[in-house]
User: What shape does this take?
Amino acid sequence: MSREEEIKKRRTFAIISHPDAGKTTITEQLLKFGGAIREAGTVKARKTGNFAKSDWMDIEKERGISVTSSVMQFDYAGKRVNILDTPGHEDFSEDTYRTLMAVDAAVMVIDSAKGIEAQTKKLFQVVKHRNIPVFTFINKLDRDGREPLDLLSELEEVLGIDSVPMNWPIGMGKNFQGLYDFTNDRVEVYQPTDGERFVGLSEVTAGNHTLANNPFYTQAVEDAELLADAGNQFDEEKVISGQLTPVYFGSALTSFGVQTFLESFLEYAPEPHSHKTVDDEEIEPLNPDFSGFVFKIQANMDPRHRDRIAFVRIVSGEFERGMSVNLVRTGKQAKLANVTQFMADSRENVQNAVAGDIIGVYDTGTYQVGDTMTTGKLKKAFEPLPTFTPELFMRVQAKNVMKQKSFHKGIEQLVQEGAIQLYTNFTTGDIMLGAVGQLQFEVFKDRMEREYNADIIMTPMGKKTVRWINPEQLDEKMSSSRNILARDRFDHPLFLFENDFALRWFKDKYPDVELKEEFSV
Ligand code: G4P
Assistant: This one.
């Protein structure tokens, strides 16, 4: 297969969801269809820590870094699929957001009983900003959930994206009969009495199936007719540009509707896209020169080892083992010798990685988040990765006042690398750190101690709502204990509001002051 054909068959995406919506369960199912894991339960076991150590990749065993679950790769229907993990719970960090910079599509998993939850909303906003396609899977149909029509309107109202159902549930919970799959002209039967899962629509319509007289089926057909008249029409271009999300219903736990979803997703999900450089030049995946960018650095949490893995999204060309690349930030050459690839079925299955794929480069401190690596004629850096508005804050100071120098050096470098965000109190000059997830603080503290020999004291400030203020309207008297005035690292003034109540109070008091909820500074 030519390199061009290899690149065109790549489909790289992430699953975005709120914890417990079923991301792990659906990931397992997808891997199973791809033949990538022998039995479902492997990803889950890894998540809960019950995974047999012997099954881990060597690199994880030796260094205690969990990299295999960060990127999962498998083949299905002639496509090479890369799923990038976006950790939730306490692992949630800016890396989670940055991972979304490295994908070409996103799958949004929603719990049918809960609808759109907080974390889904945040992740969706990041994806929306990039205009990449979003495919929605509404999960847990085997349980009683909300009305499907209600869920669709929530997508439009809360997320502001148009939706188009690709199939429609026939009942739910105890009454779940299956899916009315009008796009494939068939019905997918939940618990077929005769063993036939897929039944042609014409057969049901002709009255040859028990479902024909089922009131839930009749209801589904009516709903679908209503949607066909009054709802959005499927439009591939709108899907690809992220304006319209195709919606699939199913039950990941019972592996129902997942394969139908996977096949449709692979039909419409885009192949690797081009990336812009700082000079506004689009680098196409088929460009023969290799290029890529680091979107995440996974620090080793084991204190005996200082090594890390830099995750690189390949933008163009092909990675070859041992190749040398130009690290644009430093202008130096770096040899990509110790590299992990992520074929989930076996370690032996090493093939060259091409545009669209992710490689994990063993790193002893050479790389930073956002770094561009190139070969040949390509010399320019890709556009910088955005920074994300943090929600959690800590006051930080050096434990030992004699070690101010290493303290400041550590902070400067870790902030530059994108590990954490730096703010200073406008009046007192106190240093405050911002993060999107708690784990970022822990990693920061650990790295300050190990890499910069700087012991620190961190005092939690809790959650804050950040708003940038127009510098011309700034008056120090506006700040109080409920809205701390601070500067970001580019010296832009902002307020850290205690909560939304404090924000509303401020807006009432200073109605003319412009406040910006900026996605990037
Ligand atoms: P996450 O990765 O998004 O956090 O979710 P995960 O897949 O771990 O699923 C969260 C819970 O929801 C799990 O139950 C899982 O079994 C359940 N679940 C996932 N998909 C479905 C579905 O289609 N139907 C139903 N009924 N449940 C589903 P748990 O009780 O937390 O774990 P377990 O003890 O069942 O393993």
Observations:
- Residues 111 and 316 are 37 Å apart (CA to CA).
- Residues 37-41, 50-65, 345-350 have pLDDT under 50 and may be disordered.
- Residues 275-374 form a domain with the Elongation Factor Tu (Ef-tu); domain 3 fold (CATH 2.40.30.10).
